[in-house]
Amino acid sequence: MSTYENAFRGIPGYIHEAMVSAYVQDAMYTPMPADTLKGTITPWLKETGQAAFYRQIAQADQRYTDEIEPLYESMTVPTLIIWGAEDEWIPIGKGRELRRKIPHADFRSIPNAGHLVQEDQPATLLAYLARYLIDNENAI
């Protein structure tokens, strides 16, 4: 993607909007309501947002994760990993693998949720977070 970042910046606005819309919706398990989609993509639509969108994608690189992975085993803070069970961007197996690498981490999967868990299943996400914070209030 980084090779084509400049070419993507020159895409006409209406095509860019369709691409960003499709990209965001692909992160969902359930259809995103139109008003939520509009609010989510609006920051990416003007000239600065369009450039930032493609720059962000171009900079996504597994090597950044690989660089810090050896540090996971030294983590001592309470850690909760929450993953959308139907995440097609980063499959749930990666979340389980992450859980194995962080000592004493808790892992929760949320059914009927994709990558954007906070949009697909906000009540379940909030319940998991609240319970974890209550259970770990003295450790955090």
TrEMBL record:
Q: Which Pfam families match?
A: Abhydrolase_1
Q: Which GO terms describe its molecular function?
A: hydrolase activity
Q: Which InterPro entries match?
A: AB_hydrolase_1 (IPR000073), AB_hydrolase_fold (IPR029058)
Arranged from A to Z, the UniProt key words for this protein are: Hydrolase
Can you give the residue ranges of the AB hydrolase-1 domain? Answer: 50-121
Domain of life of the native organism = Bacteria
**Name of protein:** Alpha/beta hydrolase
